[in-house]
Amino acid sequence: MDDPGMKWMRCRIAFAATGVIVGLAVFICFIAVAEFFNLHIALWGLASGFFAFLTLAVHIQHLRGQRDLWVYRLKFFIILGFTVQFGALIALVTYIVLGAVRGQDLMPVKGNDKGYYLAAVWVFMTWKWSFALFIYSRSYRRSYVTRYDTIP
Fold first, then answer.
1. Which residues contact 122 (CB under 8 A, 6 or more apart)?
2. Mean pLDDT rounded to a whole number for the chain
3. How many CB atoms lie within 10 A of CB 30?
4. Helix, strand or coil for residue 152?
5. What burial class does residue 102 get, using C-beta atoms within 10 Å of its C-beta: 0-12 exposed, 13-18 middle, 19+ buried?
6. Which of 71, 100, 116, 148 sits in a 20 to 30 Å window from 89, CA-based?
């Protein structure tokens, strides 16, 4: 991926910021509201918001251009994003299978043994943000390494 223009960087930052806000809103909604209490959905929403935040941080640091400090941390984010993708895929399949085996409707969410399909949606969102973290970190690191002809 080439270095994006300023318009695309603003879009990336806006999407990641929206992901942070929505992830935190899902966490608060499914923890604080008694009618919707479900720990599975709340924690996956929080995880989604966390990985959206890390993606947002990667975009902002790339925009600032702090190459010397940031290029070493990008390797950690590449590994983290890659690893979380596998865990999220396993959790996604698990929630879908549990929902199908137990014959759940799409909307029962109250209780930890309910709402497997909605939890699968937030597992997918966590997968998406961990994939974004992996791809953008790898892209930015590759552009730094090739631009300065050094391999840290």
1. 26, 41, 44, 45, 47, 48
2. 88
3. 25
4. coil
5. exposed
6. 71
Residue showing tokens 């993708």: 85
Under DSSP, the state recorded for 106 is S
Nearest to 73 by CA among 2, 141, 144, 3: 141
Please provide residue 106's backbone torsions phi and psi, each rounded to the nearest 5 degrees.
Answer: -75, -25
Which pTM does this prediction carry? 0.87
| CA 74 distance to own-chain centroid | 16
Q: Which two tokens stand for residue 106?
A: 């799409």
What does the block give as tokens for 20?
């942070």
pLDDT band at 16 (very low <50, low <70, confident <90, very high): very high
The token pair at 38 is: 């479900």
| Of 92, 45, 46, 73, residue with least CA distance to 133 | 73
Q: CA dist 23 to 19, 64, 68, 152, Å?
A: 6, 25, 31, 34
Gap between the Cα atoms of 38 and 136, Å rounded: 32
| pLDDT (mean) for 19-45 | 93
DSSP state of 147: H
Query: For residue 150, what is the DSSP state?
Result: -
